Amino acid sequence: MGVREAAKGGAGRRSDARRSGSGDEARALRSRWRTATMAAGWAYPADWPLAEVDEVCGVLMGAADPSAALYRLGSARAEAGAGLAETLLDLAALHAVLAEPPGSTGIVSPNVDAIPARMLRATALGWGDVMSRQASNCAADNPLTGLATAAYLRTRLREVYAENRASGRDDYVLVLVRLDLSRTTGWSRVVAMTLLADALREVFDSGETIASIGPSVAAVLLKRDERLHRAVLNLRVLTADRLAVDPHVAPSGPAKVWLEPLPTTYEGASELLTALGR
Question: pTM value?
Fold first, then answer.
């Protein structure tokens, strides 16, 4: 069975994989892996934790083939905006930690060239398949939250800048919302972002562009008007109410909500989205 086919096993396979390894050993591996990746230069620590990281650690502590889990990790890294070089550096950190003797706590040196071909292939395939899909359908919605993708928001921004040039006006602004997903684990992060998406769609229901621009950040592109201040206040309250219904996602709040003026150029706006989404 190929890597792609194995990766389609779904949530049941993930649950089995997580149960296959010792919880304590998996947590220890995760901790050392994260430390090694951060030391190697991972630029945005808040976006490193993913449900797929936990899955990989669980599989590696058991006897199952990690290829499918690594494929899903590569996919998740691409969805979160990590480049291939960054994704492979993270994988090299994992391999370096695994190569150390049991119980070792010393500093490791990740080396991408030392990654076994099987690990490299599975992770790179996962990353590449997501990027290919995004390239062929850049206006798609995020299937989990229902929010527009960052690629679609960039398309709308290009249109907005063209509109501004034609009208000589600058009426648009971004409303940004960030959750602290470092306080949650596993699929609670997905649930938190889904609840945030529900709150965003309820507050902004008049044709505004609502998009997910990172694993913990959403953005709304809209025109400034007299209702904007009240809408931001309502969003804070409604998001808090949504997150409070589940004790597993409540720690991701309170949501940070703020207004972000658009830069003077589209290129500046594109760079802003990249920075905010990490």
Answer: 0.53
